[in-house]
Amino acid sequence: MKNNNGKIGIFDSGLGGLTILKEVIAQLPEREYLYLGDNLRAPYGDRTQKKIFEYTLAGVEWLFSHGAEIVILACNTASANALRKIQQEVLPFKYANKKVLGIIIPTAEELSKFSLSKHIGVLATVATVASGSFEREAKKYNPKIKLSIQSGGKLAELIEQNKDKKKLETEIEMVIGRLMAKDKLIDTIVLGCTHYALIEEQIKESLPSGIRIISQGEIVAKKLAEYLNRHAEIDQRLSNRFAVDFYTTAIDDTAKKKMAQFFGKEISVATVDLNRH
């Protein structure tokens, strides 16, 4: 009988992690969740690795201090540029009993299941592309996979702004054109930035028919459930009642309204200052 009240923390640089949170809640409904979006400093895709690590660690530590036992970095840029350092250089010395997981490795493990040709395209931020994380992890699980990685340009920024739909359409067409030109055998595209799941339908419209799009939410949710099944020491510390609290670093109401819009429900969002943490 579990009687603990630990929470699952979800950290993202902005709005995209809400797509991961929705799928995780669907998979694991009897849990308590804390969602923290660093909307004030989003997007992370064109930040330096040092800044991405600094911002991500601040978010993780805030979530730990508010009851999270395990934190999912629901951001590919943070997973690519901060996860390993947090796992190796921070957790063993400051938070030995807590866990931080990313979303690139779970995605890489599943990639080959979706593609017949094994030629897969990945749309990601500049920082994720530069890290080489997708290629490195995918090759570990299936050396025969051929990945073509394409920067999503200004997509994350345009999604966050949610203003100019024409600019967004133009950017999608340009990015997809560049990706498809890299390999004519691509039959599957992975949305390697959680923001891009928010425009999945628009991306589909720019693709040749028959090409499959993979969003990461379902994969990450399934993999988290499997992880908790394997790690009773974490699972037993988690609450078994449903609750979810939303936080943002943004100081105006715009980000809060967007969070409600992208989550698909009316939600209450509180502001936190990570600089004071």
Query: Alpha-carbon distance between the termini?
Result: 34 Å
Give me the secondary-structure category. Answer: alpha/beta
Give me the side-by-side strand order of the main sheet.
Answer: 4-3-1-2-9-10
By CATH reckoning, the class of the largest domain would read Alpha Beta
Number of domains: 2
Coarse shape: globular
The profile of the biggest β sheet is:
6 strands, parallel
- CATH architecture level-2 label of the largest domain: 3-Layer(aba) Sandwich
Annotation, overall tally of beta strands: 10
Notable features of this structure?
six-stranded parallel sheet; four-stranded parallel sheet; Rossmann fold; 277 residues; 10 strands; alpha/beta; 2 domains; 46% helix
Protein architecture, described:
The protein has 277 residues and is of the alpha/beta class. The chain folds into two domains: 7-103 and 218-271, Rossmann fold (3-Layer(aba) Sandwich); 105-216, Rossmann fold (3-Layer(aba) Sandwich). 46% of the residues lie in helices and 18% in strands. The protein contains 13 helices and ten strands. The chain has helices spanning 17-27, 49-65, 76-81, 83-94, 104-110, 126-131, 133-141, 155-161, 165-182, 200-205, 217-230, 232-235, 253-263, and strands at residues 7-12, 32-37, 68-73, 99-101, 119-124, 146-151, 188-191, 212-214, 243-248, 269-271. A six-stranded parallel β-sheet has the order 4-3-1-2-9-10, with helices on both faces. A four-stranded parallel β-sheet has the order 6-5-7-8, sandwiched between helices. Helix 1 links the parallel strand 1 (7-12) and strand 2 (32-37). Helix 1 (17-27) crosses helix 11. The protein is globular and about 50 Å long. It starts with 6 loop residues before the first strand and ends in a 6-residue tail after the last strand. The mean pLDDT is 94.
